[in-house]
Amino acid sequence: MKNKSAQKHKKNTGPLDHVNRCNQVDDARRVSEEKYATVVENAPDGISIIQDEIIKFANKRQAEISGYTVEELIGKSIYDLVPPDFVSVIKERVALREQGKDIPEIFHVRLLCKDGTIKETESSTKLIQYESRPASMAITRNIAERKREEEKLQQTINDLKKAVNTTVQVLVSALESRDPYTAGHQSRSANLACAIAAEMGLDQEKIEGIRMAGVIHDIGKLSVPVEVLAKPTKLSELGFSLVKEHARSGYEMLKNVESPWPLAQIVHQHHERMDGSGYPRNLKGDEIIMEARILAVADVVEAMASHRPYRSAWSIKIALEEIDKNKGILYDNTVADACLRLFREKSYQLA
Ligand SMILES: [Fe+2]
To answer: Are the CB atoms for 41 and 70 separated by under 8 Å?
Structure first.
């Protein structure tokens, strides 16, 4: 048995078998290399290997993007491939990487092409070993087309914002001309709402939406009779129910306005309360969008602190006590805290 096994083993390690096995390994390696070469040479992105700030390898696409041939690229310094004002940016990145600091894997590179034009590209790099030494592999993508599309989109958004702004201003003037008591209320509430949003760390885009909705939030009052709006005494139940309709009619007026922000929803929800006791739909907690929760607090504070036909101005102190007392019940906790911090610690003033 032992002998049989030894013979079998001997048979498998004969010289012919060894040659066969070597050939098989060579074949496998060749197939594998061909596979990699096909992938690299047909990649839709530029691929290059950089060592000691010199290009050691570049694929066809890298050559196409830069306008050089592959042969011309090999041996070039990476600093010859960016405009002079971009050299320091690249040097800084190289230095940070050498210090072992974290740098973003994908970054924007302005590529200086052979014909002197500059292309906007996005590059991602990875540290690798090349010919047994550390090197960087860079994948370069031409993003000129994407940049152009982004700029066009941004321009459309800006135009849309301008158009919405003009519409909003017209509506605000219309409302304030028939309801002088709320003149200024909307813009002061909008300012406070933006300050609260900034205090909470919301992004600029959201804050812009809050401002726009803030200056228009009572627009539905255009459909409330002037006699009710200007009544110098406390409103009857009927009068109050007419006033309450303004949130819904504001939504109806704005729901078809094309805008980058949820203006109609903010206006619709600015009298909703966290415990569901608000109006017009008795929404609760998360059902109320954050922008509306912020505007709700700003609206209450401004309204309580300002003059109304049926009562003299309440002090800001009383307004803040109302927010403090009902935070987590009527008002969102985070919003209320940000508002209280603004007045109590950061000397915010209604303006
Ligand atoms: Fe309102």
So the answer is: no
